[in-house]
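Technical note accompanying the year-one report. For the benefit of new consortium partners, we illustrate the data format agreed upon in the data management plan: each record pairs a sequence with a structure-token string. No post-processing was applied to the example shown here.
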Amino acid sequence: MGHEMDTLQNWVDKSSRIVFFGGAGVSTESGIPDFRSTDGLYHQQYDYPPETILSHTFYQARPEEFYRFYRNKMLFPNAEPNAAHRKLAELERAGKLTAVVTQNIDGLHQAAGSREVLELHGSVHRNYCEKCRRFYSLEDIISSSGVPKCTCGGRIKPDVVLYEETLDGRTLERALDHIRGADMLIIGGTSLAVYPAASLVNYYGGKKLVLINKSPTPYDSSADLLIAAPIGEVLGAIRVNGSL
């Protein structure tokens, strides 16, 4: 991996508008399981598959079962940022990285210090009453039981994008603007199998497309640099020298 790391370092040194696009693999090193890995949620046994439970239809029809699964399998309040999160925040502080675009909902990028974070699938840290729109925190959801209710009587829903729901248009457009303007796009910890998020890659028109993932993806042949290694190990090894 020595040659690939040398190339990555050289490109980072020469770039000032880096965008990082990441998925579940960025958070697995913080102890948060992803859905599609060998020991992820999709390989465990439930009365319903996770993809069904985490759908808008299921949430509407069986909110008690949705919230039982959601609290047990989707919330990790004690998870801490890992080397990948910390390095991305460092790159932003140095004026090298303009944005993190993430499919994750855990808030670890912000916890590491990243400021421009585009959460395509929402965040467990934001929850709203469906009736009056009052805000509730992650702690409010964890400390509640059953289907959480607002003081007005309305049901509280996590601000996460469930299956069958559309991405937030403003967040998507901001992510596209950053990717279009990037002089380097680093993709890490994602199988690039979830659409429409995966299609964002197609909006990058530069010549420094870096793909870091332990397993193959549909975009491997499009990458200018391909590194098959853990994302934390790779990003953690980057030296940050500040903007040019």
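Partners are asked to follow this layout when depositing records. The mean pLDDT is 92.
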